[in-house]
Amino acid sequence: MIQSKDIILFDDTYYAIAEVHSKTCVAFNCTRGEHGFIVDSSLKYELPLEDIYDTTMEEVKLDDQQFEILKRKLIFDRVEEFYNLFHQKKEFVAGESSLSYAGKIYDQKEMVALADASLDFWLTYGRFSKQFEKEFAKFLGVRYALLTNSGSSANLLAVSALTSPKLGERRLKPGDEVITVAAGFPTTVAPIVQNRLVPVFVDVDLSTYNISVAQVEQAISKKTRAIMIAHTMGNPFDLNPIMEIAQKHNLWVIEDNCDALGSRYEGKLTGTFGHIGTSSFYPPHHITMGEGGAVYTNDPIIKLAIESFRDWGRDCWCASGCDDTCKKRFGWQLGQLPYGYDHKYTYSHLGYNLKVTDMQAAIGLEQLKKLPNFVDKRINNFNLLRGKLEHLSDILILPHATANSSPSWFGFILTVKDGNKYSRNKITQYLESHKIQTRMLFAGNLIKHPAFDGVEYRLASDLANTDKIMNDTFLVGVYPGLTEEMIDYMSEKISQAVEESKNN
């Protein structure tokens, strides 16, 4: 009787049996090699049992490893079938279909990768995570990339790493100042406060929505130790002068690259200019793992500090499931611990557990392959929309790229020039009523939020442009899921919304 794992010779061809049903069996082509049978998992057949009952069965059976590969392949085929049945995109109908400002773009490959990782049931950081870190670092052109569970955690790890005693006199200490902006996402600034540092707020330019470089140097005091700013909407801040100021004053630079993966400044990828860069893999971002983020650096000491803060604060750098990679696990004496105390349970920082799961990383690996195309699509969509809105430039401030940059745009940001004549809120309400999703420039002005009541900070300027953004700025999407037809509809409705928003 034919059973799973049997190898048969049928019609002069060898087959490995993966599954046996009532009338058929699922088999894969295989060949006899010098050291046994080699199975080709790409050649699958469904053979009628009645035709092969009298066939020759080999004495040898599939080994467990080969059998697992075939069983996984069968599962992956069903996952692909499920994708094709239930995850295909629906046709766009103007006025009926919702146009999101952002969203995840995926196909059956991400779903198969997720199934592959789930079958391992390793659950935490593992083989897919290690591979993603390697591939992501290669893409960025940096020495180290470390995965974490969100972009917000990436920012927390970046700031926390700079407080490490391993950095000696350059470590950030409570009361030290960090230059940043209030026009952005809260978790660019929250880690500064959470590490008992003092944010120093500089205003932004309305032309690029990035930090006003002219104000940065005058914001520096004797307490200033770092600069932490984001590339707004994927538009790089002016990196050359910022890096020159940082070098002149011996300041750390953290690039919040969460909205700008794939953006370039003078041909070089953003996130790689400063001492540390961060990314987010939340669904609206350039690639997604669902939840997830990364921290990257070229500095080996900073890398060890990031890793430690991410992994409970431990001093040991062994990955989960690995022991004694330093070859002296019981040969350390740190702090006031006795000599020989287990290095895996020795802690050099007050850390967290901010690791990612292997299932997320598996999705990320497939997304990373698509990233260059995603970037091209974002740029193309941005250019299309900007061209269609050029006639509104006397009413709206249209976004434009920082000099010498090529942004991987996160969104299309617009500011009403005369808030007394035109209403930002009426524009966004009109668009939302026509199923076009809008967003503010995140927090608008962070210090106006309840969360900043009682928080110590310093203002380096009056934040007039930041307040303008809070009152008169909004954004729509340019993400890769948008087609030219969708952008035509969006531009038409934005024009109508502006007309409807006049304050009579």
In words, what does this structure look like?
By secondary structure, the protein is an alpha/beta fold. Helix content is 34%, strand content 19%. It has 13 helices and 19 strands. It has helices at 49-52, 64-86, 108-120, 127-140, 151-161, 186-194, 213-219, 239-249, 300-310, 358-389, 424-433, 464-472, 484-500, and strands at residues 6-10, 13-20, 24-33, 36-48, 56-61, 144-148, 177-180, 198-201, 224-230, 252-256, 264-265, 268-269, 276-280, 293-297, 396-397, 405-406, 411-416, 458-459, 473-477. The strands form four sheets. It has an eight-stranded mixed beta sheet with strand order 6-14-13-10-9-7-8-18, sandwiched between helices. Strands 4-3-2-1-5 form a five-stranded antiparallel beta sheet. Strand 1 (6-10) and strand 2 (13-20) form a beta hairpin. Helix 2 (64-86) runs antiparallel to helix 3, helix 3 (108-120) runs antiparallel to helix 10 and helix 5 (151-161) crosses helix 9 (300-310). It is flat. The N and C termini lie far apart (86 Å). The model has no long low-confidence stretch (mean pLDDT 96).
Provide a short characterization of the protein structure.
This protein is α/β, with parallel strands linked by helices. It contains 13 helices and 19 strands.
